[in-house]
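[SOLVED] Need 3D model of a two-part complex

Original post:
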Amino acid sequence: MTTSPQALRALEWIDAGALRIIDQRELPGRLSRVDLASADDVIDAIRTLAVRGANSIGSAGAFGFALGVRDGEEPRAVAARVAAARPTAVALREGVAQAAAAVSEGGSWRDAVRVGTALLEQDVEDCARIGEAGRIELAGATSILTHCNTGILATAGIGTALGVVYAKAAAGEDVHVYSTETRPLRQGLRLTVWELQQAEIPVTALVDSAAAALLHSGAVDAVVVGADRIAANGDTANKVGTFSVALAARDAGVPFYVAAPLSAVDVTAADGGAIPIELRGAEEVLREDPGSAPLAAADTDVWNPSFDVTPARLIDGIITERGVAHPDLGLGLAALARPA
Amino acid sequence: MTTSPQALRALEWIDAGALRIIDQRELPGRLSRVDLASADDVIDAIRTLAVRGANSIGSAGAFGFALGVRDGEEPRAVAARVAAARPTAVALREGVAQAAAAVSEGGSWRDAVRVGTALLEQDVEDCARIGEAGRIELAGATSILTHCNTGILATAGIGTALGVVYAKAAAGEDVHVYSTETRPLRQGLRLTVWELQQAEIPVTALVDSAAAALLHSGAVDAVVVGADRIAANGDTANKVGTFSVALAARDAGVPFYVAAPLSAVDVTAADGGAIPIELRGAEEVLREDPGSAPLAAADTDVWNPSFDVTPARLIDGIITERGVAHPDLGLGLAALARPA
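Solution:
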């Protein structure tokens, strides 16, 4: 790899008192960093997807909470505000809750910062373990299709689904990635393609709707995607379109894997029906960017869910930092997710 | 409807000796017409999708051939050039072949024009019959999902899949359309949404990859799409992404229909494997338009098939001008397609 995860670093805490992030809205045109110096800065960055990825918004949430407390906001109020910035990823809610607990136990805002830092470190470690577990599980798979972005730009480490790809590359194995575009915000075409090109890993882009034909062509050995929230039964909420890819993979006989830390498992959700799905505005679909001409009438009705739920029956394995669960076989997720 | 099909008229022959078309590349921003006055004009318009839709490029092919012969080109050479402008739709090949036959039987280029005009008239008639057959088949279905554009802009008449919608609306039935965006060229968001809005038929847009979640939500009563070529067994080549929608519809228990004239049936293709699939350039995926900044590195590898093949096993019915075939039941397509 020409660019190591360390060199890119999608988010880091700086001692002056801010969360420094890569502004993912600017990629691939420009690699620019921005310092989030208040709770509102963090909330805005999460809402607008300047910072994104389930793991990253979890630690960003802890830092956002810390900044709010530092600035004198009532802890419960700021916790609620930050946790509500995006509803689907369980990691955001958990990151804020852990930071709030550190403060409510008599700590200061600096204790909440320490929670954020620990979450970043845990993320790096989890990604490395997920990558290695996936590398072993998918030994022999050289051609991998993924959806959305789950790599260096979505985590503090090497990523989850893309972590498997980086682990393969680091081990000297052949690997070629097919990246869907991932409409409407194109995290696949803008981010996954970009970060794999930086790492000199071969990548081919395709529009989301071409995945079914590609999977049936025999060109793909396995599908690996990330997760924003996983229900206790293995149903997985992830970027909208994941469900379509899973249906096509099953129909084509291509194994379909989710790669995610166990922090993405929400044991309080019995199945996918209990996971809230964020609906976003029409503008994301109707315009390329806020300044561009609309692609359809500005008042066009648009249904724009950010996520969908892939049922466990379509998932061949969930690759976690503690090993691979097989929800389709009724095996392992609950046991893996149990606190050590 | 505030705008009748007659008022829009996607293509018509003008006596001065040109095919006048709506330039679909300019929609929905501008409704502009352009006159195609030579075989090269027609070929370029077909290649760049200024004129599109299986039926429309069939008649355009006949006119393009006529113009080439008028301008002194050797008939077999111009026939081959025009027929090769896009490989997947069988109607293009057939339109050119019929026009060429009229000339080779001792006719002049004007006889080829007459073939084109007859194809346009046949198209209008076929669309009306398909619309009515679909309206009866889908009685009670008020919420219809479609993919790509198959309406007034894709035919000389009211369209195929959208013809069913227009027939419902004309009969005073409630109908609401969900239109996928249809990447990369967005025929759904740019064209289907636009023409339904002109007709004051309620329409909701969604990105292609959201179709699976929508179909599972219970919001859709039936899926109806068009076809570029149908094999003898019912396997159907249509705009890329159709296959994904068909898989999701079957999984969700929503009936999936193809609406197309019998001229789309290629009896020489035993199944979908015999249908050539056009691969288009990377630019369509990498840039919004030729002048805009690339969404990924300009040398990014892109797999960009224009069509995919939906297997007959996923198709509940093929709505034609002679009635509805049920290929999943092994019934009817061959009998319907047999010359009267």
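Edit: The radius of gyration of chain A is 19 Å.
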